[in-house]
Amino acid sequence: MSIPMLNKLHMNGYDVLSVNNGPWRVCTEGDRLASFTSREEAMAYAAALPGYRQRSRQVQRQNVS
Asked: Which domain of life is it from (predicted)?
């Protein structure tokens, strides 16, 4: 029985993570944006993206209506 290992970093408001030494993923809370084979590639991609800040619930409700 093995225990899953999570490596997680933050860059510009994005999560950069890897589970069980798998591919590195750049994500927001609800979306996976890209996958990479190395941590350096994933961090460079996250650094190149504009800063991410989660929208407030009030703004999200206005856009749904």
From this structure: Bacteria
